[in-house]
Amino acid sequence: MNQHLSNIPGPIGVFDSGYGGLTILDKIREALPEYDYIYLGDNARAPYGTRSFEVVYEFTRQAVNKLFDMGCHLVILACNTASAKALRSIQMNDLPQIDPARRVLGVIRPTVECIGDISKNQHIGVLATAGTIKSESYPLEIHKLFPDIQVSGVACPMWVSLVENNESQNDGADYFIRKYIDQLLSKDPQIDTVILGCTHFPLLLPKIRQYIANDISVISQGEYVAESLKDYLRRHPEMDAKCTKNGNCQFYTTEAEEKFSESASTFLNQQISVKHITLE
Description:
Layout: E1 12-16, H1 21-31, E2 37-41, H2 53-69, E3 74-77, H3 80-85, H4 87-98, E4 103-105, H5 108-113, H6 115-118, E5 123-128, H7 130-135, H8 137-145, E6 150-155, H9 159-164, H10 173-187, E7 193-196, H11 205-210, E8 217-219, H12 222-235, H13 237-240, E9 249-253, H14 257-268, E10 274-276
Helix pairs in contact: 1-12
């Protein structure tokens, strides 16, 4: 840990196992364009959704440490699996030793906080990766805030692959999109709000909407995470002062730069330049 960096302002770090976090970064930059950002994608070891708690925690810890070393005081885990499996351990066990003044925030809590205003009948569905569903993070967080809400979840193991292989708009995707939505709605036909609990899933929204009734709300996380971060910085001026504001954004990947640039442009609708980085 570079202790001398602890008082020098730096960018906001945004971490994801792959590309999905770019949907979060996109909304954050829309809401807070003046800040500087470093996006780090651990694409070489993605996806995280099927990995064990221990492995996800270890990989996420390495990424957080790397972003701290690069000068970030605040890191957003723009990955539901990392938020579900690693966030609490990092906050409780690692931050006090690394630097108690630094912060790591996830995407699950901000998503859950908006539920109370959106659901009319207290029946919520969650579509996510196997890891996020298995962790039960969404029901646990929802019940902390809204004890009476009924939560049903279904894992969508194929959806990340559809997005990462640019198949999300093709006819072949329909079968898998309809399959998991039908599974969810057969678990609880009263669901009136569906959370997309994976940052890749917003890219499937046009097709998801085809198979979900119009009176069911579909929650895509980006805007809620962005609003929550805006609010967080307003409430913590001491952290806001540690964030540089030149409107810059740098991208790093553990995979081949070329592959990342190509896929990232699908998520961001712009060309970006990216540097390779190693995590250990």
